[in-house]
Write a structure and sequence with these properties.
24% of the residues lie in helices and 29% in strands. By secondary structure, it is of the alpha/beta class.
C-alpha cells in the first residue's frame, strides 16, 4: 500500500471515528503526483481539497463556462453530481478562475488549499491548462464513464506555477494515406489537451487521397478522395491503378465539418494547421484535374506507395497557381490559424526538366535549375499567403534552391534543415524522424503491429530536444517547438493510430512543455504508469511496448559462450525469468545480471508489477547446434549493407528479428546464396535449418527453394534434400525457417543453396535475407 493510501485509510478511519471531515490530516507525497507534462514549479503542502456535490465553479468571464465542462462532465459521470457555476464566490468549496494580465499567454498558477482552488491566468489557455492539471491531480477513476463508488475526490494542497518551455507543441495526423473520421479527430483533440499540446496539424492532401472539400473544384473530392480498394495488400505491393477504375475507398471532410472541428479545438486551446501539399504528393489532385500536371495525362488515384513522385504540379503554367490560390482562399476561410503548411517535400522534378512550360518559366525568371524552380513555386505561394496575413510552413526541402523570405521550416530529415534555417534567421519546428516519427516501431519488431520501419521507443522520444547542440542563443530563439508526425501508410484503424500515438505523445509533451532541468526518465516512467490507468478508463488503445523485455545477446566465439542481457525501458524494471520447461510464474528468478549460456536453452521472461507478469512474455531459444563457430565460405559474399555479425554471422546462435536492419541479417541482392559450412571433422548430422525473412515492401522475399548437399571431402557433394516455397503476395513481415531432414550420416561439409526469387512482380531486384544455418 502506498504511503498515500495508508494515510488516506487512516484519515478515513479518523473521519469515521470523529464523524467530522478533516482534510488537513491527509498527506500526499511527491510520489502521489503524476501530472504529465511535469509542472515547472510545484510546492506540496499538507492537507487536501475534496470535491463533493457542493463544489462550485466561479468564472472570470461568462464565456468560460465551456472550459469547466471537462471536469463538470467527469464528476457527472463518476458521481452523478451536477456541479454549479456561480457568479458570486461562496465562503468555501469552490474552484475559481482569476485573471492576471501580467502572466504569459500560456502560463497559469494553481493554488489549492483545503477550502478552495484558485486558477490564475491571463486568459483561457491558462485556465484550460489549470483544469487539465486538476484533472490529473484527481484519482485516475475520474476518467471513468461509469459511476464510481468508494473513491473520495481529494487533490493535494499545493501551489503550482507553470508554463510551457516551447510555444509550439504539435501532433500531425496524416488523414490522406488512410482516412479518419471527424469523431476520431475530436477525441484526439481531447487527448492533446490533456497533455497541454496546442497544435493539431492535419495532412489533408497526399497522393493517395484529397481530404478537404473545395467548393470551386468539386472533383478534388469526387475523384481525388477515392481510390481503388487494395487494402488487403502491402502498401508498397499495390498495383498502379488507371484513371478509369472507380475508387471506392477513402473519404473527405466537408467545410462545415472542418469549421466545427476548428471551433471545438479552440475550446481546448488547440490550433489546427492545415497542410495542402505542393508541388508533389498531389497525385490525387492530378487525378481529378490532369491539366495541373506537366503531361496533362489522366492518372488514377494511387492505392498505395508512389516512388519516386514525378506526377507533380506543373510550375510553368499559370493555371496551377490560379488553382492553388483559389484552393488556399477556401482553406483560409475554414482555418483561422496563423500558419498554412504547403508541404514542399519529396518532389522528383524529372517532368519539370522536360516540360516546355517549366523551361519557359525558368528562362523568364532566370532560374538556373529545377531546384530554383521549386523555390520560385514556394516563394510565389508564400507571397500569396502573406498577402492574406498568414505565414507559410514547409518541410525542410523548401530550403533547397533558396528559402522563401518569411517561411517557417519543419525539419524532418533530422535536425540539420532546422539548424540551417535557424542560421538563416527563419523560425523552425523540429520533427526529426529519429524522435518524432510515430510511424516507427516502439518495441521489439517481432511483437509489434506492422510499422513503417525505424525504432523510436518511449524512452527515446523522452530524450527529444528541439534545440540542438551547437545552436547559438539567437538561433535557439527561432526554434518554436516540436511535433510528432503520424504518417498513416500502415495505419488503417483508429485503434492502431492510438497505439502509435500513446504513450509516446505523453513523453513528447513533457519534452516540449517541462523545463529541461526537470527531465528525469525514472520519474517519468513512474508517472506514465498512472497515465496508463487514465488511458485504460478512456479506452485508449495505448501501446504497452514499454513493458516488453528486450534482449541484448552476444557470443564469444573463442569460448562459445552466449551472454544474454535482458532489459526494459523502465529503470526500476522487475524482470523475472525461467529456463526451458519451467513455467513463468511469480516464482521465477529475478533477473539481476546477464545470463551466460553454453548449451541449448529456452529463456522465458516477463516484466512483473506487484508480482504479476505484465506485457507480452519474452521467449527466446539459444540453440547450440553443430555448426556453431564453424567456418563458413560463400560462393559470393553477402552485400556490404547487410553483413550480420560478419564471419560467424550464420553460425553464432544469434537470431534475427523481423526488423531487417537489426544487424543480424546477411543479405544478397539479386543473387542466390551458396554457403559451405566446414564442420572441421566428420560429424553425424540429420537436419539443416535456414532462417529467412520476407518483407516485400522493401523487396525482401523468401527464397523459392533451399537445397542441402553434403560431402566428406569438400569436392564431391550429394544432395540430401530441398524445401521449396512458391512465391505468394504477402502484405506482412514474416520469418520462415526452411528445414531439410535426411537420413543421419557422417559428413564434414554442408552446402546450403538458397534460390533468390530474382525479380519482384514489378521487375525489380530481390533481396534474399538469411540469419542462421542450423545444423543438427
Ligand atoms: C516521408 S516526412 C514523408 C512522408 C511519408 C513518411 C513516412 C515527409 C515530409 N514526407 O510522405 O509518409 O516519410 O515515414
Amino acid at each position: 500500500m502506498s504511503v498515500f493510501k495508508k494515510m488516506l485509510v487512516m484519515a478515513i478511519i479518523a473521519i469515521t471515528v470523529s464523524c467530522q471531515k478533516s482534510n488537513e490530516d491527509i498527506i500526499f507525497t511527491e510520489n502521489d503526483i503524476a501530472v504529465i507534462p511535469k509542472p515547472a514549479k510545484l510546492l506540496l503542502n499538507k492537507g487536501a481539497f475534496q470535491f463533493d456535490e457542493n463544489t462550485k465553479f466561479i468564472l472570470a468571464a461568462a464565456s468560460q463556462e465551456e472550459l469547466t465542462s471537462v471536469l463538470i462532465d467527469k464528476f457527472k459521470n463518476v458521481s452523478g453530481w451536477d456541479l454549479d457555476v456561480l457568479e458570486q464566490t461562496p465562503k468555501e468549496n469552490y474552484v475559481q478562475f482569476i485573471i492576471d494580465e501580467n502572466l504569459d499567454d500560456e502560463a497559469y498558477k494553481l493554488n489549492v488549499n483545503s477550502n478552495r482552488v484558485l486558477i490564475t491566468s491571463k486568459g483561457d489557455a491558462g485556465f484550460i491548462y489549470g483544469i487539465e492539471t486538476l484533472r490529473q491531480l484527481l484519482p485516475v477513476a475520474i476518467e471513468s464513464s461509469n459511476s464510481v463508488s468508494g473513491t473520495d475526490w481529494f487533490i493535494p494542497n499545493l501551489t503550482i506555477e507553470d508554463q510551457p518551455r516551447y510555444k509550439y507543441r504539435g501532433l500531425m495526423l496524416d488523414v490522406s494515406r488512410h482516412f479518419f473520421e471527424i469523431e476520431y479527430l475530436k477525441k484526439t483533440i481531447d487527448r492533446l489537451a490533456m497533455l497541454k499540446m496546442n497544435v493539431l496539424h492535419l495532412h489533408l492532401v497526399d497522393d493517395q487521397g484529397w481530404r478537404i472539400e473545395i467548393k470551386k473544384y468539386p472533383k478534388l473530392t469526387e475523384v481525388g478522395a477515392w481510390r481503388v480498394d487494395q487494402e488487403d495488400k502491402h502498401w508498397d505491393g499495390r498495383y498502379t491503378t488507371s484513371a478509369d477504375e472507380k475508387g471506392t475507398y477513402g473519404g473527405f471532410y466537408t467545410q462545415d465539418e472542418l469549421k466545427d472541428l476548428v471551433a471545438y479545438a479552440a475550446t481546448k486551446n488547440i490550433e489546427i494547421i492545415p497542410e495542402i501539399e505542393m508541388p508533389a504528393h498531389v497525385s490525387s489532385a492530378i487525378a481529378a484535374y490532369p491539366e495541373l500536371s506537366c503531361h496533362e495525362k489522366p492518372i488514377g488515384v494511387p492505392s498505395g506507395g508512389v516512388w519516386p513522385i514525378t506526377d507533380i504540379y506543373c510550375a510553368g503554367k499559370e493555371n496551377t497557381f490560379e488553382f492553388l490560390e483559389n484552393v488556399l482562399e477556401e482553406v483560409m476561410e475554414i482555418f483561422p490559424s496563423k500558419y498554412i503548411h504547403v508541404g514542399g517535400d519529396e518532389a522528383t522534378k524529372t517532368n519539370w526538366k522536360k516540360c516546355p512550360d517549366c523551361n519557359k518559366r525558368m528562362r523568364s525568371e532566370n532560374l538556373e535549375n529545377v531546384e530554383e524552380l521549386q523555390s520560385y513555386f514556394i516563394k510565389r505561394m508564400e507571397s500569396f499567403i502573406n498577402s492574406k496575413g498568414k505565414r507559410l510552413i514547409g518541410w525542410d526541402e523548401i530550403l533547397e534552391g533558396g528559402i522563401a523570405p518569411e517561411a517557417t521550416v519543419m525539419s524532418w530529415r533530422g535536425t540539420k534543415g532546422g539548424l540551417e534555417a535557424a542560421k538563416q534567421g527563419h523560425d523552425v519546428i523540429m520533427t526529426p524522424g529519429s524522435h518524432c516519427y510515430f510511424d516507427h516501431y516502439q518495441g521489439p519488431q517481432n511483437e509489434e503491429p506492422l510499422a513503417w520501419g525505424g525504432y523510436t521507443p518511449l524512452s527515446k522520444v523522452y530524450t527529444f530536444d528541439p534545440v540542438v547542440e551547437g545552436m547559438t542563443a539567437a538561433e535557439a530563439k527561432h526554434v518554436l517547438g516540436g511535433q510528432a508526425n503520424l504518417w498513416s501508410e500502415q495505419i488503417k484503424t483508429t485503434s492502431h493510430s492510438e497505439y502509435m500515438i500513446f504513450p509516446r505523445l505523453a513523453a513528447l509533451s513533457e519534452t516540449l512543455w517541462s523545463t529541461k532541468e526537470s527531465r528525469n526518465w525514472e520519474d517519468f516512467s513512474t508517472r506514465i504508469v498512472t497515465m496508463f490507468g487514465r488511458y485504460d478508463y478512456l479506452n485508449i488503445n495505448y501501446a504497452k511496448s514499454a513493458y516488453l523485455v528486450m534482449e541484448d545477446v552476444k557470443i564469444d566465439m573463442d569460448t562459445k559462450k552466449v551472454t544474454l542481457a535482458l532489459n526494459n525501458e523502465f529503470t526500476d524494471a522487475d524482470i523475472r525469468y525461467t529456463l526451458n520447461d519451467a513455467k513463468l510464474t511469480d516464482a521465477a528468478v529475478k533477473y539481476t545480471e546477464p545470463l551466460i549460456i553454453n548449451e541449448s536453452t529456452e529463456v522465458h521472461a516477463s516484466l512483473f508489477k506487484n508480482d504479476v507478469p505484465v506485457g507480452v512474455p519474452f521467449n527466446t531459444t539459444i540453440k547450440f547446434h553443430k555448426a556453431v563457430g564453424k567456418k563458413v565460405t560463400f560462393k559470393e559474399i553477402y552485400d556490404d549493407r547487410y553483413q550480420g555479425e560478419g564471419e560467424f554471422g550464420m553460425v553464432n546462435t544469434l537470431r534475427a528479428t523481423k526488423n531487417y536492419t537489426d544487424g543480424h541479417w546477411q543479405a544478397w541482392l539479386g543473387k542466390d546464396m551458396e554457403a559451405v559450412v566446414d564442420l572441421g571433422e566428420a560429424t553425424s548430422i540429420k537436419e539443416v535449418v535456414v532462417g529467412t525473412l520476407e518483407n516485400q515492401g522493401p523487396g525482401i522475399y523468401f527464397p523459392t527453394a533451399v537445397k542441402v548437399s553434403v560431402s566428406k571431402d569438400g569436392k564431391n557433394y550429394t544432395e540430401v534434400g530441398v524445401e521449396k516455397r512458391a512465391f505468394a503476395k504477402n502484405p506482412s513481415f514474416d520469418l520462415k525457417e526452411f528445414k531439410v531432414s535426411f537420413e543421419e550420416q557422417s559428413v564434414r561439409y554442408v552446402k546450403v543453396f538458397a534460390k533468390n526469387l530474382s525479380k519482384t512482380p514489378e521487375g525489380g531486384k530481390v533481396w534474399l535475407f538469411v540469419d542462421e544455418i542450423i545444423i543438427n
